[in-house]
Amino acid sequence: MPEQNSLSWKRIFAEGAAIVASILLAFAIDAWWVDRNEIERESRILMSLLAEIDQNQELLRQAGDEYKRRYMDALKILEYIDVSPTDIDNAQLRPLIRSVLTIRTFHLESGTLAGLLAAGELSLIRNEGLRGRLAAWPSQIVEWSEEQEAVFVYVRDIMVPFLSNKVQLRHIGPDFAPFPDGESLPNVPTGEADNDSIAELITSVEFDNLMFRRAQGLWYAIRDGETLTAQLSEIDGQIREYISE
Q: In the prediction, which pLDDT does 181 show?
C-alpha cells in the first residue's frame, strides 16, 4: 500500500508539473506574440514617421527658398531709401512691394505623431532617446505655426493700413493682398501708380521702419526654418539608425 501511494503522488506531481509547464509555455508564447506584434507595429509607425519627415523637409525647403527671395526683395526696397525720388522706377518697385507683402503659409505634417500622442501610444517607440525627441516635436510645429500667424497679422493689421493711407492698393497689384497662401483678387485692373505717391511712400521714415521690421521677420523665418530642418535631419538619422539595429 505505501508503495502504491508513493506512485500515486509521483504521478500527481508529474501531471501537475506538466500542467504548470504548459501554462507557462502558453504565457511565454502569448508574450512573444504580443511583443512581435508591437515590434511590427513600431516598424510601421517609424516608416510613416520617415515619410512625414520627408514631406516636412520638402515644405521647409520651399519655405526657405521663398523667404530668402522675399527677404532679398525687402533689402532692395530698403535701398530705395537713399535714392532720389526722381530716380525711382515704379516698374521695378511695384513687384518688389508685392513680393514682400505676399504671404504664404507652410503647414508641417504631424498626423502619425499626433495620432500616437492622442492615443497615448508613444510608448510603442522603445528607444527612449527617440521617444523624447518625438514628444518634443509637436511644440516646435506649434511655434512655427504661431510665427507664421504673427507675420500674417503684422502685414494685415499694420503694413496694409499704412499703405492704404499713402497709395491706392490696387496700383501696387492685387496679388500682394495679405491673404494666406498668396491668394489674390481676380481680374482687378491695377492701372499705374502715381510717381509722386510712390516716391513719397518709399522715402518716408514710417515705411522704412515697417519694411525693416518685415525684413527682420523674414530673416527670423529663414533662421527658424533652418533650425527645424536640422532637427528633422537629426530625428530622421536617429530613426534610421534605430531601424538598422
A: 46
Q: Which residue has the cell 536640422?
A: 230
pLDDT given at position 49: 93
CB atoms within 10 A of CB 168: 13
pLDDT, position 60: 95
Distance between CA atoms of 89 and 73, rounded to whole angstroms?
15
Q: DSSP assignment of 72-129, as one string?
A: HHHHHHHHGGGS-GGG--HHHHHHHHHHHH-----PPP-HHHHHHHHTT-GGG---HH
Nearest to 165 by CA among 206, 212, 209: 206
CA pair distance 236, 53, nearest whole angstrom: 7
Domain count, the chain: 1
- Quote the pLDDT of residue 231: 94
3-class DSSP string for 45-81: HHHHHHHHHHHHHHHHHHHHHHHHHHHHHHHHHHHHH
Whats the size of the chain, residue-wise? 245
- Show the domain range for 91: 2-244
Q: How far is CA 196 from CA 79, 180, 190, 236, in A?
A: 18, 31, 17, 54
**DSSP assignment, residue 175?**
G
Name residues of the chain where pLDDT drops below 70. Answer: 1-18, 20-22, 24-38, 83-88, 169-197
Handedness of CA 73, 78, 84, 86 (dihedral sign): positive
Distance CA 126, CA 42 (A): 8
